[in-house]
Amino acid sequence: MQGHLRSLAAAATAALLLSACGAGAPEGGQAAAESATIDYWLWDVAQQPQYQACADAFQKANPNYKVKITQYGWDDYWNTLTTAFVSGTAPDVFVSHLSRYPDFAAQGTILPIDDQVAKDKVDLSLYQDGLADLWVTKDGKRYGLPKDFDTVAVIYNSELLKDAGLKPEDMEKLEWNPKDGGSYEKTIAHLTVDKNGKRGDEPGFDKTKVAVYGIGLAGSGAGFGQTEWSMYAMSNGWQYADQNPWPSRFNYADPKFKETITWFTSLIDKGYMPSMAIAGAGVNQMDAYGAGKYAMVTEGSWNTKSYWNMKGVKSVLAPTPVGPTGKRASLFNGLADNISAATDNPDAAWAWVKFLGSPACQEEIVADEAVIFPAIKSARTRAEQAFGKLGIDVKPFTMHVEEGTTHLAPIADHWADITATMTETMDAIFSRKADVSSLDGANERVNGLFG
Fold first, then answer.
1. What Cα–Cα distance (Å) separates residue 216 from each residue in 286, 333, 340?
2. Which residues are CB-contacts of 86 (< 8 A; sequence separation ≥ 6)?
3. How far does the signal peptide extend, from start to end residue (predicted)?
4. Where are the domains of the chain?
5. How confident is the model at residue 9, as a pLDDT?
6. Is the dihedral of CA 195, 196, 199, 201 positive or negative?
């Protein structure tokens, strides 16, 4: 892979970047770092190879350090991590999420890195505007260096689009509204086909016997809905809370949110989108799309390459639809690495975190792997070029950054409790076991967490 071919060049850069990170250096001199194995956890199997390439370069520049990478699936990752904190077996460093790290910081299970950033003069201006600030808590302490950013777009099956008599340019100018769904819903309906060959917008369509759904469903989205409903709600003028980051009141009972969810779940009732029972029947959204069961899906940029690697499916990207605000919308999310407070090797852990946040990793290795968009500004163009070499035009993702239609992912205290409440509520709404009016009580419970 390309990242491995660049490891030698990256290693030379890494040596310079990390020369000040040696553990136990006496005043006036630099001592060799003590040997240490750094346990590093991540959840995305698609990203593991690129970070192994970074680890190879890091170890070459720092032969006393070894990085041991462990990968867990998203569903198991956080429970395993929480258990590890309790049992004293937590990793030295782990990939963290903007919605999760505030709770870890409040619990004292992760270490702030302000002193290290200042000592080593890490240039925070290298990162996409605003990303570095997201990893600073209310008390002003920093807990991470940005490693990537992501947005949301539409991925569609070009053969199914052609069969429907639609063209790629038709997908680039779609709009939606909560009253009738606009041209977006019309397209979804036309892409839907029942087992008798009738389309969703044709007389005789049987919504109980659908062969191809116009749009897929990953789940209810709980209180986050990044790839499910966030792009619709925000382009309808809705915001998650009174402020972001660190809100004191959430807006899940807002009429704009309710009407968005009412419209979105109506696609299930019309047979254009699978029910929760079908979506949760053991075949995930990506696999169902690959099997030709979904004509299109809304997805995050981090999954793009996985869709393009599917056999027998030719995919194309399209922008999210323009909403009632007259603009598109996408959550703007990003990851960073946290250092466990229980680490036995804080100097080694920081050296690894610093390298993961450096051009030596992000620009020289990660960008060329065409899996994610690195957080470092100068690496984005390189990543776009790498995607382009694979025949993937990622403009539907990056246009949000260029056009200013991004919205920060919610960063809040009590997110685990918020998620529990909203998972129960949204699952019930999407399963048609509860009305959107249940969002009133859920919002009261969420806001009750903040006093």
1. 9, 22, 37
2. none
3. 1-25
4. 2-149+334-403, 152-332+414-448
5. 34
6. negative
According to DSSP, the residues that pair with 41 across neighbouring strands are: 70, 94
pLDDT at 22 > cutoff 70: no
Please say whether the beta carbons of 363 and 378 come within 8 A: yes
Q: Give pTM, 2 decimals.
A: 0.89
pLDDT (tens digit per residue) in 207-219: 999 999 999 999 9
The answer to whether the beta carbons of residues 129 and 376 sit under 8 Å apart is no
Same fold flag, 2-149+334-403 and 152-332+414-448: yes
CA separation for the pair 250, 196 (Å, rounded)? 45
Q: How confident is the model at residue 282 (pLDDT cuts 50, 70, 90)?
A: confident
Tell me 334's DSSP state.
-
Residues 208 and 331: their CA atoms lie apart, in Å, by 33
The beta strands (E) that lie in 20-74 are given as 36-42, 65-71
Sign of torsion over alpha carbons 122, 125, 126, 128: positive
Kind plus residue range of the DSSP H or E element containing 155: strand 152-157
Q: What is the pLDDT of residue 19?
A: 35
At 3 the pLDDT is 34
Q: So what's the pLDDT on residue 405?
A: 97
Residue located via tokens 């998972």: 423
Q: How many CB atoms lie within 10 A of CB 207?
A: 13
Collect all residues with Cβ–Cβ distance below 8 Å to 301 and sequence separation of at least 6.
Answer: 150, 151, 152, 153, 372, 373, 394, 397
**Cα dihedral sign for 188, 190, 196, 197?**
negative
Phi, psi (deg, nearest 5) at residue 218: -90, -30
Domain 152-332+414-448 has CATH 3.40.50.300: no
Confidence at residue 33, expressed as pLDDT on a 0 to 100 scale: 61
Amino acid at 173: K
- Which tokens go with 263? 């419209």
CATH number attached to the domain at 2-149+334-403: 3.40.190.10
The predicted pLDDT at position 18 comes to 37
Contact 210, 202 (CB under 8 A): no
Q: Is a pLDDT exceeding 60 seen at residue 341? A: yes
Element (H, E) at 149: strand 148-149
pLDDT 10s digits, 234-264: 999 999 999 999 999 999 999 999 999 999 9
Q: Bin 371: left if φ > 0, else alpha if -120 < ψ < 50, else beta.
A: alpha
136, HSE (Cβ side, Cα atoms, 13 Å): 10
In DSSP notation, 259-285 reads HHHHHHHHHHHTTSS--HHHHTSS--H
Amino acid, single-letter form, for residue 419 = T
